[in-house]
Amino acid sequence: MKKIGFIGIGNMGGAILSGYAQSGKTGHNQLLAFDMNSELCEKTKEEISQLTICESGRQLCEKSDIVVLGVKPQVIESVMKEIAPAYTDEKTVISMAAGVSMEFVERYLGNDAAVIRIMPNTPAKVGEAMVAICRNGNVDDDVFNLAESLFSVIGRAEFVEERLMDCVIGVSGSSPAYTYMYIEALIEAAVKNGMDAETARIFAAQSVLGAAKMVLESPESVEQLRINVCSPNGTTIEAVNKLFENGFMEDVKEGFQAAVDRSIEMGSEKQ
User: Fold this and answer.
1) Is 11 marked as a binding-site residue?
2) Which InterPro entries match (predicted)?
């Protein structure tokens, strides 16, 4: 049995906590949480009956075997200073703060600290997260496997080298926002052509969901999947040609790169 504590249970931390609690796979593990927003703590406690609310981040660290930091990069330093006196080397700290390296965490907890770094995304709320995960040399296999199972129940967890974490932010951490923009544009275009907004929302979202599933399950390349939909002189090829003409793919790549560059910049601010 492990005591798993969450410091910061807002959008991302809360999504992971709720997803794990509702997965039915917590076993005998105990769940603890702390957030500066006391109303949020009360609400989350109502939703997760087995949750223990702590009075501070330090108290949570004292009581937990695994501490999940769901706080923003802007406040990670103050949180590290708070929990450092309560940290001991048999505990594991998991950080999801964008641009914050494992070395930064070690700076406060010591070189022998067991640190895992993750980069999840908000579809954790519906059990479809993509979580990148890496560890330093102080994390043993048992704890790392537990961490992987923790994040696998809210979607999919894959190991990546830490040097790729900035890239992960561009391709999955931030990309739900780009995808929502695409769906939003489809809805607006459908409404303009006479469909009601709610029906358009269902048609657009289900089509994106299905296309994504095809990418994950088909042995064909993404390019070939696109070609397969485009009949000569048909409707789809007209749309695709217009998107190419307007630089759709280059716009997406530039957006991706902007997210990556900002992650690198945020990391340099923590040096």
Assistant:
1) yes
2) 6-PGluconate_DH-like_C_sf (IPR008927), NAD(P)-bd_dom_sf (IPR036291), P5C_Rdtase_cat_N (IPR028939), P5CR_dimer (IPR029036), Pyrroline-COOH_reductase (IPR000304)
